[in-house]
């Protein structure tokens, strides 16, 4: 009956294994295939996201003020003056959402959160 120690020593004897020490001095060689280039920041796309975020926020606030009748509507074809506020709020939301989304990705990529990078933001081919 063979034991575990006999099986281990049958393959390679501990006396025959030769080890070599690694060099203690480093020559400063860096393998460039493992080095990542710094991320390319899409400044134009981030500027567009800021613009969309601000315009969308402004339209949402303006629509909410019109809906609450804090800002009076000068010319109204309908008896209900809140009719014009609803499209402004909808357009504001449609403009706000992409701006907010891309700004959030840019913020998390700048802070270095896992799963977020500047590659997730479209760069318009620049």
TrEMBL record:
InterPro entries: TMEM230, TMEM_230/134
Transmembrane annotation, as ranges: 45-71, 83-103
GO biological process, one term: synaptic vesicle transport
Membrane topology term: Multi-pass membrane protein
Cited Pfam families: TMEM_230_134
Entry's Gene Ontology cellular component terms: autophagosome; early endosome; Golgi apparatus; late endosome; membrane; recycling endosome; synaptic vesicle
UniProt keyword list: Cytoplasmic vesicle, Endosome, Golgi apparatus, Membrane, Synapse, Transmembrane, Transmembrane helix
Subcellular location: Cytoplasmic vesicle, Autophagosome; Cytoplasmic vesicle, Secretory vesicle, Synaptic vesicle; Early endosome; Golgi apparatus, trans-Golgi network
Family stated for the protein in its record: Belongs to the TMEM134/TMEM230 family.
Functional summary from the UniProt entry: Involved in trafficking and recycling of synaptic vesicles.
Name of the protein in question: Transmembrane protein 230
């Amino acid at each position: 009956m063979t034991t575990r120690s006999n099986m281990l020593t049958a393959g390679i004897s501990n006396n025959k294994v030769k080890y070599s020490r690694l060099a203690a001095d480093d020559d400063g060689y860096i393998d460039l295939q493992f080095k990542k280039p710094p991320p390319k920041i899409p400044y134009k796309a981030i500027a567009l996201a800021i613009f969309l975020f601000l315009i969308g926020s402004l339209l949402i606030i303006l629509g909410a003020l019109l809906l609450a009748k804090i800002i009076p509507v000068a010319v109204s074809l309908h008896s209900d003056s809140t009719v014009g506020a609803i499209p402004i709020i909808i357009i504001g939301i449609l403009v706000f959402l992409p701006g907010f989304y891309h700004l959030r990705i840019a913020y998390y990529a700048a802070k270095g959160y896992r799963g977020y990078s500047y590659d997730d933001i479209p760069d318009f081919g620049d």
